[in-house]
User: Which sequence fits this backbone?
């Protein structure tokens, strides 16, 4: 009987299910039935001791309220985002339902489209409980190298913030601003997300590792990133509605930019790039944003 299940059968849920099925049987469930091996209903999946949850950040609170009952499961959170309605980090939301020693968070550069082909990658499992890492590590296939970190808040902020910076980078690309501009944007973005993170207690080393620089460099330099593609569309003056409809998948950076904008105002943190992304999403002309960024 399988002891591990993935909840959410979007791009990332399916890729993790593929990876976690290499060494053992792994179940998968989702709101709508899918034609995937070992697809089960939610109740069956919930009987597993190990649950990997891969649903969009903005849906997590409601999903937990409606579906989750704690029976000592060990939960690995695969989402990357900050709740826009409250500015809460995912670990704060999950801790309302699950004790922190039963929680881990995945971070690092990992496009689902490559993981599902079995291409090599490295991931970080972040948890305050090292034994949760030890248990989960064994489930991962040989093509994924796993690292441990106890910097849960740092990994979460990196994973969420880089999506907003990927939108900025897509805009930069869409405006044909050149390689110099993009490199400057990415490196100043790294400094910005570290400044934001350190305010909330994140460790510096997290930002220069896989969860920070690693995931930022990946997402902010490839059209495989949904967030980067949102930026490309914005630079071409397409509406957000059009862009998201065509995307058909979640781009967490959109709602996360709302959360960062309010958190940075509330906590008086200097976050110029994220603020400009927020303004562009509210309708500001990207060229005006660029001028303001160069001046600030
Ligand atoms: N796709 C990727 O390469 C990676 C994605 N992630 C993160 O994983 C999370 C999920 O992303 P994807 O799977 O790529 O998105 P997706 O758009 O492909 O799929 C999202 C899935 O969530 C489900 N869902 C949506 N609303 C729900 C609700 N209210 N209750 C239950 N399920 C719901 C959808 O049915 C869908 O199966 C995001 O936070 C994303 O940032 C993290 C690393 C890599
Ligand atoms: O988080 C990701 C890769 O690590 C996926 O990024 P996108 O959601 O922008 O596609």
Assistant:
């Amino acid at each position: 009987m399988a002891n591990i299940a993935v909840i959410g059968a979007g791009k990332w849920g399916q890729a993790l299910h593929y990876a976690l099925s290499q060494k053992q049987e792994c179940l998968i469930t989702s709101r709508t039935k899918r034609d995937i091996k070992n697809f089960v209903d939610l109740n069956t999946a919930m009987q597993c001791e190990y649950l990997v949850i891969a649903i969009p950040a903005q849906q997590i609170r409601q999903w937990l309220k409606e579906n989750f009952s704690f029976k000592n499961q060990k939960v690995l959170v695969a989402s990357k985002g900050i709740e826009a309605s409250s500015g809460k980090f995912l670990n704060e939301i999950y801790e309302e339902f699950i004790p922190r020693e039963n929680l881990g968070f995945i971070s690092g550069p990992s496009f689902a489209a490559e993981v599902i082909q079995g291409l090599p990658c490295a991931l970080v499992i972040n948890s305050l409980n090292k034994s949760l890492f030890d248990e989960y590590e064994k489930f991962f296939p040989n093509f994924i190298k796993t690292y441990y970190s106890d910097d849960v808040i740092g990994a979460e902020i990196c994973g969420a913030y880089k999506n907003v910076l990927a939108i900025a980078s897509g805009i930069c690309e869409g405006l044909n601003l050149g390689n110099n501009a993009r490199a400057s944007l990415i490196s100043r973005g790294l400094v910005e997300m570290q400044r934001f993170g350190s305010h909330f207690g994140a460790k510096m080393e997290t930002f220069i590792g896989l969860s920070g620089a690693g995931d930022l460099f990946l997402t902010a330099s490839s059209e495989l990133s949904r967030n980067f593609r949102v930026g490309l569309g914005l630079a071409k003056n397409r509406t957000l509605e059009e862009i998201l409809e065509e995307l058909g998948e979640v781009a967490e950076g959109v709602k996360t930019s709302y959360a960062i904008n309010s958190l940075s105002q509330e906590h008086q943190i200097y976050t110029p790039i994220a603020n400009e992304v927020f303004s562009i999403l509210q309708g500001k002309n990207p060229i005006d944003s660029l001028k303001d960024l160069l001046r600030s």
About this structure: Residues 152-174 form the longest helix (23 residues). Residues 4-150 form a domain with the Rossmann fold fold (CATH 3.40.50.720). The chain has two domains: 4-150, 159-295. Residues 28 and 238 are 36 Å apart (CA to CA).
